Amino acid sequence: MNKIIKLDSVTQFNTERGQETLHPLVTVLDQSKSKMIKMSRFFSGLYVVFLKEEKCADMLYGRGHYDYQQETIIFIAPGQLAGFDEEDTLIQPNGWALAFHPDFIHGTSLGKHIHNYHFFLYSIQEALHVSEREKSDLLDCFYKIQRELVRSIDRHSKKLVISNIELLLNYCERFYDRQFITREHVNRDILTRFESLVDNYFTSDKPAMIGLPTVAYCAEELHLSPKYFGDLVKKETGQSAQEYLQNKIIDAAKERMFDAGKSISEIAYGMGFKYPQHFARLFKQRVGKTPQEYRLMN
């Protein structure tokens, strides 16, 4: 297996592809002009956005591999592992690439809210597939950033480059919203599997062994990243994944209330709560009554 390379700088990113560095902290590359690169895995210190225009080698992305079959855009954030597993193989990059160092956006509006672009934390099966029209909008952003980098740097340069990066990311956010809609049947299937997962969880010994189910646990069981799962639930139900999960927990608790042979504390412990008072507090928040009041009412 290849040695993992640290990708620390824009210059390193450009040099590997045989392209000129116009700015030390940000670059946009037409990958058709890049030289062939050796397959390797890298630990990114940069934000990287790849627009792939045709099929290429299977790329390691998150915890799996992605095989590009159409126009696809993926996002890599600092601290993520990406690249290729094969050794000593050269490939020709294609499409476009945007890479920028976190220092480039420090102190800017983008730097303050880039964490809101959750797709930087999505995983392999959650890549964005774009139509021809959508690709045209994205390419226009790449072109504008590239043209600005070719100009002589002045006091407007950074602001204009960052505004176009932000525009590109906003387009991607819009296109992801569209993808959530066009894949509604897939999303509904995920929610169905999520509900079954929670139901089966409380009929197993897992509550006693590992406590309450978490959003991260459910996302992993559904083979999704927590951020993508959270966004999917929000768009489908209007609730956060945490709220949706808590409602499922309360639904399970209501069923157990009819077992008169168990105390409220026993029910709480049996569901994975560490402390009965935490269960009582959550129940009151969601139902409007304490567990004891609900039991007496029913």
TrEMBL record:
Signal peptide: none annotated. SMART domains: HTH_ARAC (SM00342). Gene3D superfamilies: Homeodomain-like. Residues 192-297 form the HTH araC/xylS-type domain. The keyword Lyase does not apply. It comes from the Bacteria. PROSITE patterns: HTH_ARAC_FAMILY_2 (PS01124). One of its GO terms (molecular function) is sequence-specific DNA binding. Keywords: DNA-binding, Transcription, Transcription regulation. This is AraC family transcriptional regulator.
